[in-house]
Amino acid sequence: MSHLHDMNAFEPSRLTFPASRWRFFTATMFSSLSIGIVVYCLTRWFQIPFGWAVFIVVIRAAFWACAVDIQNFDVHVDGYTLSGPSFIFSSQPVSIDLSDVDPEFVSEWLGVFSVHDSAGNEVMAHYRYYMPDDRVLLRGLIERLRQP
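Above: the chain sequence. Below: its structure as tokens.
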């Protein structure tokens, strides 16, 4: 309950953290290419033919990163509501009530933040999708939500 009380002590605000297309593209390509290279090396090592075909997935990721509606990856704070993508590579936005978030369901791991509410809704995104100044504010919000 103290977490809810702390959240009510602050004035509701409206913030938008827009995702950057270029940052989203580079993060997607870096992760896809890294996975592609590892899989290719494993296919060579295990002598599996056509290992090069894994790079078709990398090319597909590049097209997807260019075509996705980047605004669906924006994170919004409107009063006590947090809205944003529901998964790192999904553009399906969800909204959660910040007063319904338990600190144990707020996490950061490898540059990804995740916030769950008691209904099981989740806002999850990679810090790399956002501009450096926005990342500082997002990290501050996540750190605040992690405090009991």
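The chain has a mean pLDDT of 87.
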